[in-house]
Specification:
The chain has 129 residues and is of the alpha/beta class. Helices cover 38% and strands 15% of the residues. It has a four-stranded parallel sheet with strand order 2-1-3-4, with helices on both faces. The longest helix is centred in the middle third of the chain and has 13 residues. The protein starts with a strand and ends in a 17-residue tail after the last helix.
Length: 129
């Protein structure tokens, strides 16, 4: 089985739970190669550092460093402007390999997590790509 590499953008309420799930998976199957969390007070950053995972407060630095070595970009910021900036960066660098997970798939994966609670969605007018 091929290992899947992930760049996590955002380690808030939702991203933090995905980070914990991915971190507990078999490292031969899933590897978080970097995170992009601008809030340096986020308590998960201590765990990120202990695991030797680099944090790039500016996501563009991670995309520049890893490029097509990123299989999946898991952006849980759920900010459409950020998703658009990521798409633009992928296009500008001709990265046709890395996949930016659409917000609707974030929700689907969230619903698969054990004990997941409802996600307030009123502030997300469009959860499509």
């Amino acid at each position: 089985m091929r290992k899947i590499t992930i760049l996590m953008i955002g380690l808030g309420r939702i991203g933090g739970k995905f980070y914990e799930q991915f971190s507990n998976m078999n490292p031969e199957h899933v590897e978080i190669i970097g995170v992009s969390e601008p809030n340096m007070n986020n308590p998960l950053l201590k765990n990120v550092e202990q695991r030797g995972i680099p944090n790039f407060p500016d996501f563009e630095e991670a995309l520049d460093k890893y490029g097509e070595n990123i299989d999946i970009i898991m952006d849980t910021s759920n900010r459409s402007d950020l998703k658009q900036a990521i798409r633009q960066k992928l296009q500008d660098t001709n990265n046709k390999h890395s996949v930016l997970v659409p917000m609707v798939v974030d929700y689907l994966m969230w619903y698969l997590l054990p004990g997941s609670e409802a996600i307030p969605q009123s502030h997300h007018g469009d959860i499509g790509y």
